[in-house]
């Protein structure tokens, strides 16, 4: 059983539907999983253990799967496609290691974070190492266009992370501020996963562009659902305590919508000031209860559904192959996921 299987099997409902999709791709996903492990093998024992720690904790591996599905629209050659699928997942992993340092997070996917098991310094260097390995692997594809797409995505991700920090506890941020931030932080990497899979397989440029747009819309919905789960989910479901976002000052879309309610706004502003004054080291259950009972939840759910609808519509121009149907199924999973 792969790490991605372990993550999905522990869930129900939409997770079981997703597991059926993964089962069809099991051989190729297992191959990518082995390549991921091989890619971060290093002689230094602590660096090897820290690098493997997050990999072994599991994950949905959506980025490599999007690469594989995107490649189905061209000449599918796994030996070539892996040089995109593996780096994109490594970039995602490295960003999580760094995120956990910024967030002072102790758990992820139900396991201790690298910073918690070791320390912040080891975590930062581990993330740096994984980033470096990702870049070294993609250079095995002699296509500068692929290198440019991936490097641009990395730049935008970094800006997105900085923007998130800049807006910590900033109650006046707009919906547009939030959407631009999650585009950079999350959606772009999913978008280029679809696009680069197609590019590496030599798919038509118009199809690669449609796949990019699909990944972008699905990625926006993915992050909105993630932000909803941080408020409405349980620790068992999401692998970390709910309310982690607001404890670090990250004001997400359900909160932005709730702040528009004049009856709730004064209380929410007081709560945000209290949480910030305590540097997040305080009980946020009352704050979460207010958000859960507000229209912010339904408005955020509606926004996520709109992005999923856009993701499915943009696929209409693609060839009618099985991969297209699988992408539609992934979109439905993203829009309804509970983990």
TrEMBL record:
The keyword Glycoprotein does not apply. Its cofactor is Mg(2+). One of its GO terms (biological process) is isoprenoid biosynthetic process. Keywords: Magnesium, Metal-binding, Transferase. Pfam families: polyprenyl_synt. GO terms for molecular function: metal ion binding; prenyltransferase activity. Belongs to the FPP/GGPP synthase family. This is Trans-hexaprenyltranstransferase. The lineage of its organism: Bacteria, Bacillati, Bacillota, Bacilli, Bacillales.
